[in-house]
Amino acid sequence: MRSKKNHKLGSSLAVMYEKEYLGKKLGLLISMIVSIIAVLLSMPFVKWVYVIQADTLYNNLGLGEDMISKLKSSYSIFNLLSFVKYSKQGNIGLYSMLLLLIFVAAIYFNIIMLIRVLKKKNKTKGNLYLCFLGKLSMIFNIIFSFATLGYKFFVDMKLGTTVFFISPIVYLVLILSVIAYLSVKVVENAERKIYGEYGFWHELRKNWVLFVMLIPAAIYLLINNYLPMVGVYYAFTSFNFRDGLWASPFVGFKNFEYLLKADLLNLTKNTITYNFVFIAIGNLLQIVFAIFISQVGCRWFKKTSQTLMFMPYFVSFVILKVLVYNLFEYDSGVINTLVVSLGLDRIDFYNKPSYWPFLITLFYIWKNLGYGMVVYLATILGISDEYYDAAKVDGASLLQQIRYITLPLIKPTFIILFLFSLGSIMKGQFELFYQMVGTNGVLYDATDIFDTYVYRITTTQPLSIGIGTAAGLYQSLFGFIVIMLTNYVVKKKNPDYALF
Length: 500
Known about the structure:
Elements: H1 2-18, E1 20-21, E2 24-25, H2 26-41, E3 49-51, H3 54-60, H4 65-70, E4 74-75, H5 80-87, H6 93-118, H7 128-159, E5 164-166, H8 168-195, H9 199-206, H10 208-226, H11 254-261, H12 264-295, H13 299-310, H14 317-328, H15 334-341, H16 356-381, H17 385-393, H18 398-423, H19 430-437, H20 444-447, H21 450-460, H22 465-493
Antiparallel strand pairs: 1-2, 3-4, 3-5
């Protein structure tokens, strides 16, 4: 009897959630309402954490009057890190940072959910995508609520006393998010039956062998790609051996301020300019030489040319340094020896920064031309001969065949390689710059990039882990923004060429 009553109750709830109001099903509207509440309660003026007996606690921490004056009796998630900074409790900094990141992710998905629900039309099947967004936003709300509750116990344990009182807002968001998740789940189950899509667990049961085969790759990525990302926290600390990696003082954006004072704009300009030139000229010449070699009829000449162009890629950067030094050295370099024999004055390459942007670009292209050309050559050789035969029948010249057949068909390859290159536009060719320029301070203005700068400060200042991490974080965020914007533009123009 009880099971029948439960089944009847579940059926009536399903019917209720399936009803449409204002053009949307009730289950999705509940999720939207909870998202609105979550976004409103996340405003900076809403306090999520209260300090118990703030005056007594701050005095017990042994802080000076200047620090106590900066501390508050209540905090929103936005300024919770200021408690870590001014209370000098670095051992709770990592958890505070992770809590902020979860909070930002939760707000982001709630806002995306609102935008999608308010749209009149959806391109995906029915409401499946909306249900996915609704569940995702509610899951992040639930995770964030539990993380906030756990934060109280973590801080109390680390400081050895009761520190925080969690606002009832956290419990409200948790309860509402659970209700909204269940309501969306009811709507989703009905939608999945209509379109014959049964979700992740159905796929897992059906293709469990394939998922098992993915486990080693997932573990590898987790260990080598995702776990190291926790180290981003060091960008906001001042590392010292006494406190260790996870308890060093939290300093906020002090490391980024140091970078800004260290001529951040010039480092950014140099890194971007060099990489853009490498990408533009490098890809252009790789395409040109790939087309040239593909048109060569003599087999032995084609193989010999490919080998000779590919060989510089295997030349060590240390050997490159020796080569460059013997070419451009002031007293006995090959070029200056030749210049003197012609009755001209010696050229002081290592004291004139204006020469090095051209020299670095020249040697980069010399070293990487053959390697990059192989990709384009493989694409060209994969083009069917029928296109060229038909073009010849129509009277197309060689240049016309290249223009109307070869170039359009290698365009997808170029775009994909271009997007991959842009993702690392803030990552310089460290070995190339360091071996060619070394520690010659005279040339820094024209040749110093982020990678050489970080290497220099980490070798001269052994405890500058925070500054090096801050520079790496800046590079990564800059590259992420560039690749996202570029992919967005490409997707708008031609979705088939976009990475995602």
